[in-house]
TrEMBL record:
InterPro entries hit by this protein: CorA_cytoplasmic_dom (IPR045861), CorA_TM1_TM2 (IPR045863), Mg/Co-transport_prot_CorA (IPR004488), MgTranspt_CorA/ZnTranspt_ZntB (IPR002523)
Pfam family name, one: CorA
Low complexity: compositionally biased ranges: 1-13
CDD domains from the UniProt entry: MtCorA-like
Function: Mediates influx of magnesium ions. Alternates between open and closed states. Activated by low cytoplasmic Mg(2+) levels. Inactive when cytoplasmic Mg(2+) levels are high.
PANTHER family for this protein: CORA FAMILY METAL ION TRANSPORTER (EUROFUNG)
Chief place where the protein resides: membrane
Protein name as catalogued: Magnesium transport protein CorA
Protein encoded by which gene: corA
Species the sequence originates in: Xylanimonas ulmi
Amino acid sequence: MTTSLPTPALRPTTPRPAPRGLSGVLRPRRRPAEVAVTVTPPTRPARPGTVVASAIYDDGARRSSHVRLGETFRALRSRPGGMAWIDLDRPDATELATLAAEFDLHALAVEDAVQAHQRPKLERYGDTLFVVLRAARYVDAAEEVEFSELHVFVGPDFVVTVRHGGSPNLAEVRERLEADPAMLARGPEAVLYAILDAVVDGYLPVVSGLENDIDEIESQVFASGAEASRRIYELSREVADFQRAVRPLRQVLHALTQGFSKYKVDDELQANLRDVADHLTEVAERVETHRGALRDILTVNATLVAQRQNEEATVQNEEIKKISSWAAILFAPTVVGGIYGMNFDVMPELHWAFGYPFALGLMLAVSGVLWMVFRLRHWI
């Protein structure tokens, strides 16, 4: 059953000075005096604990902290020129629908934030930026790369971060920004910069961990380890996944830098974003080098495996030659003994006085000749 409800307490209609920055020439949202909203009662309550942190900032300082989204909305309405930063952990569709209604978030962006599994990208919906990031963390114990997804909505006076994983540590990002009021005072774009910086900084330990793994694999390959091929394949997949996180992010940063002049981004933010872009370029180049090194290692490993198989086949052939040679040498006396062992009354040399010595001599002579032949051919 649906009911028509008026919106709760409305934000003052006094226009705010629009901050300049990455999200464009931003305008304060204007709402009509009364709006009829069709609300469908949820089938289950929202999961507790999805709001990780929610605070209102003004002039580079935290003014208030809140547990519920409604409290945050009311506090932001009461502070013109302020900024809200809401951090959510795997919210459901109901919570994001509440945010979408308050901040005019586009339905497609909200759908992406709920479903996750998106590639890094930057999309602009009116005066709101929607950024998807893939953070990475190197797990040393398992020697593998763990990926997380982060969605960021950046508007005129708000930042909404939606986590799908544990990286990056947004609590540390928030603390670092709060310790730099001059940067935080630059508004939502400063928060976006800090998040991008944290994501790219998190890539550096991953690159170092992959380098160590590649060095170990090189030693394992030349030490003729049996598991080298499998480990090369697994590491190649990790590097490829990591590259799929890094490469699209370069396009995101390129799109942001291209909008510097158009949207009159603060000079300090421009310099910081260029620095982040430089670090990301370094990471991308090192990842590409790792992928090329793994291709070379895989080729070398295949060559060494083929060489080892040839060596094993050669050893087996030598053994077969020796066995065959001695079998032929022993076969000759067997033939002579079998012939003279037949119980026929009329046989040449059967009743000859020198028949027995002659048979033994024949056996030895044939065996000796065969031994010399095989010896000259290096079979024995």
